[in-house]
Amino acid sequence: MNSPFWTVHPVYSSNIIVSGVTILAPVNSANTDGINPDSSSNVLIEDCYIISGDDCIAIKSGWDEYGIAFHTPSRHILIRRLTCISPTSAAIALGSEMSGGIQDVHAEDILAIDTESAIRIKTSVGRGGYVRDVYVRRMKLKTMKYVFWMTGDYGNHPDNHYDPGAVPVIEGISYSDVTAENVTLAGQMQGTRKVVFKGLCLSNVKIGMAKGVKRRTAWNCTGIEGTVSSVSPSPCSMLRDVGCGRACPFPKERFPIERVRCCEE
Description:
Blueprint: E1 14-19, E2 22-24, E3 41-51, E4 57-59, H1 64-70, E5 74-85, E6 90-95, E7 102-122, E8 130-151, E9 169-190, E10 197-209, E11 219-222, E12 224-232, E13 239-241
Protein name: Polygalacturonase
Family: Belongs to the glycosyl hydrolase 28 family.
Keywords: Glycosidase, Hydrolase
């Protein structure tokens, strides 16, 4: 598929399986997102190969006051065995339109090559809503600008009627078993005074920096709170080191969509 805009966009939907899909979009064409679950629940995305000029997968749930009013979160989403190439965007993004909420996202076995970032969370004051209970494990990353990218002041507003008191809640984000090579910045994690990213957990992370990058400048952190275990290079002091061998959680329970068996011809 080669769409001029978002390629696969399930919206206000549930019980969705996207399996074995190949998406090939020009890498210099913006907004050619691969798969964008939007205010949708019980979603399985597996065995997909995506080349894109934007995020390979972006989870959304409404924009500012409209998303808050509709109040339909994206939740119970499983992403597995994804291959992504996107030089200007993320393998998996959450937001920035997340005003209805995003919760219970599991991602595993992700391969990202020549991608701007692996996982990106983007939001801002006025969005409201929440991103919580996100669990990612077993990522292999080759050549990218940022491994972990979080932005608390991202994007514009649809109009001037947004609520400046609508502060999003970002909490319970876990990354484990990550290997990366040829990386410019291990973490660009930028919360703000109002939008603080809480409950972050990183474990068993090994990042190889690009030539010429100093390890002591590998992380740029503001407005975050969390813990780390066995992370290299050593992250910023806002992430408390709890010692070796303390794995971040990944839930054992399965989503209902995982019990669905597709018909075979």
